[in-house]
# Entry
Amino acid sequence: QVQLVESGGGLVQPGGSLRLSCAASGFTVDDYAIGWFRRAPGKEREGVSCIGSVDDGRILYSDSVKGRFTISRDTAKNTVYLQMNSLRPEDTAVYYCAAGPSVVTPQWPICVMTKYWGQGTQVTVSS
# Structure
């Protein structure tokens, strides 16, 4: 049974950091692309970052997080992380990870044909 479980969200002050985890079961994260998405209140879901399968090798970031967020994969733990630094109030959202085959699409920063989704984790950036 495929499952994605996000964790690591919380309340943080502006300028702070959080590390989100996307723990996978039922498949190997090396074989799938994993994307991080977020949905802020009153806004549409947007892609944040994406890491392709090992064969793919791509790592993509949205312009709004590039230079502040880092996506990475830990094969031994079968987990993908999103390290978020220099957090801003506008980063407040529910963050989701999604897994699926790698895909090439003009939508940026999408590299995954989403097949499986996690339940989401809340990130709130506020003083």
About this structure: The radius of gyration is 13 Å.
